[in-house]
Amino acid sequence: MDLPETPWIHTLRFVLEVAATVAFALSGMIAAARQRMDAVGVCVVAFVAAFGGGTLRDLLLDQRPFFWVRHTGYVWGILALCVGTMLFMRQRHFQPTERAMLLPDAIGLGLFAAIGVDAAMALGMPPLIAVMMGLITGVFGGVLRDVLCNKVPQAFSDHRPYALCAFAGGWVDVVLRQFQAPEWAALLACVLVTAGLRGLALWRNWQLPAWRV
Length: 213
Known about the structure:
Keywords: Cell membrane, Membrane, Transmembrane, Transmembrane helix
Number of strands: 0
Pfam families: Gly_transporter
Family: Belongs to the UPF0126 family.
Number of helices: 10
Structural class: mainly alpha
Transmembrane segments: 12-32, 39-56, 68-89, 101-122, 128-148
Subcellular location: Cell membrane
Helix content: over 70%
Strand content: under 5%
């Protein structure tokens, strides 16, 4: 039987979830701004980047209402972030902001992967499906963001491991649960493994093989 979660783990999960949502929303705003979209376009791309993966997960798992409908504070927060960013951020801010986002983006990938695995396991899904739900939650928001910006999704084209990091972290989560580890330990392990692998991939410039012409 899983041990009860301690309060600080619940707080940590909430803080990381908010930070990850903000990181992905910012990535959507920067991508939209570079395409010179108007205010509506910027908000739409930001919402899709932040909520797209979780929405697809809930759709595939037949969960209603969607997670952002249940927690409307996220919607108001992203809307306020969009307005504030459009008022104060200019073209010269894009590059340093993008570099600074690499670490929170990696952490966000790990957290969203863990949330996806948790949601699927809570519904009694098989391990492979749970891992795939974690991968979709962590990756698909960025894929939709790039599609809306008329780009080949970065997760598929920059050749540095991204989805594979979430896939590996999801399996760590599942294996720990099979050994009766506490849920909070499995959650943190998924976050650390996924974010750590992504960080190593960026630092060491690991490359996946491209299709040979």
